[in-house]
Amino acid sequence: MTRLNRQFLIGTVTRLVEQKGIDLILDVFPTLVGQPIQWVFLGSGEPELERRISELGNTYPTDVGYRIGFDTQLSHAMFAGLDAFLMPSRFEPCGLSQLYSLRYGTVPIVRRTGGLADSVRDADGPLPTGFVFDSPNSGELRATILRALQAFHAPKTWQMLQHNGMAQDLSWTHSAREYLEIYRAALLTQPWRIL
Fold first, then answer.
1. DSSP sequence for 24-93
2. Cβ distance 127 to 164 under 8 Å?
3. What share of the chain is helix, strand, coil (3-state, %, to 5)?
4. Edge to edge, what strands does the sheet with 8-13 contain?
5. Would the pTM count as exceeding 0.85?
6. Which of 38, 90, 142, 148 has the most crowded CB, counting CB atoms within 10 A?
7. Does domain 3-168 have CATH number 3.40.50.2000?
8. Are the beta carbons of 145 and 109 closer than 8 angstroms?
9. Which residue in 171, 180, 158, 44 sits closest to 99, CA to CA?
10. Distances in whole angstroms, Cα of residue 140 to Cα of each of 46, 80, 99, 126, 177
């Protein structure tokens, strides 16, 4: 099977709450029916969002898979097996899921906010690792998913995104070094007086 005939597998592993942009995913889904995309959801949260995901899975059983609840082993299997990880959060102070996806070589699709903006670099920029959009609306999310789908069908581009994501040093050691450099630079530029 060539990549052009292969379904693009997008997954979301998260709390099913508005903060995570789950409603945006559910709003954009009908506009992408017919595209070569399959969707997988794992999580629990707001009953209405759980209901809507269950309804999608029951209506489109060959396109949507879901499990309401949480399962650590399944979440890691999903991160390892997905093509793209979708996290269109309205706000995200840190975010660990996109870090897992980068480590596993699963290309993240995220909204530019908080920790997502800090850890995912857009495909149109230098050293890209994923796909980033700005406004929390279904139009931008749809356009970004289609951009990712197009890149998925360009294997060299997709492999470069995977490689860049997996090669990042997102450890605390790296972060601590960066903070230390900022601290040292501040000491050199500020007229500090020790009493």
1. HHHHHHHHHTTSSEEEEEEE-B-HHHHHHHHHHHHHSTTTEEEEES--HHHHHHHHHH-SEEEE--S--S
2. yes
3. 50, 15, 30
4. 64-68, 37-43, 8-13, 84-87, 107-111, 131-133
5. yes
6. 148
7. yes
8. yes
9. 171
10. 24, 26, 22, 21, 35
CB 6 within 8 A of CB 31: no
Give the residue extent of every domain in the chain: 3-168
| Spatial CA neighbour of 22 closest among 30, 31, 12 | 12
Task: HSE, CB side, 13 Å, CA atoms: give it for residue 14.
Answer: 26
Phi-psi group of 95: left, alpha or beta (phi > 0 → left; psi -120 to 50 → alpha; rest → beta): left
Report how far residue 90's alpha carbon sits from residue 44's, in angstroms, rounded to the nearest whole number.
Answer: 18
Write the single-letter amino acid at 150. Q
Of the candidates 124, 92, 83, the residue with the CA atom closest to the CA atom of residue 111: 92
Are the CB atoms for 29 and 56 separated by under 8 Å?
yes
In the block, which residue shows the tokens 């508005």? Answer: 18
Residues 173-188 have pLDDT tens digits of: 877 888 788 888 887 8
Question: Which DSSP string do the residues of 94-126 spell out, in sequence order?
Answer: S-SHHHHHHHHTPEEEEESSHHHHHH--BTTSS
User: Cα 22 to chain center, whole Å?
Assistant: 12
Q: What distance in Å separates the CA atoms of residue 2 and residue 146, rounded to the nearest whole number?
A: 19
Where do we find the tokens 């949480």? 70
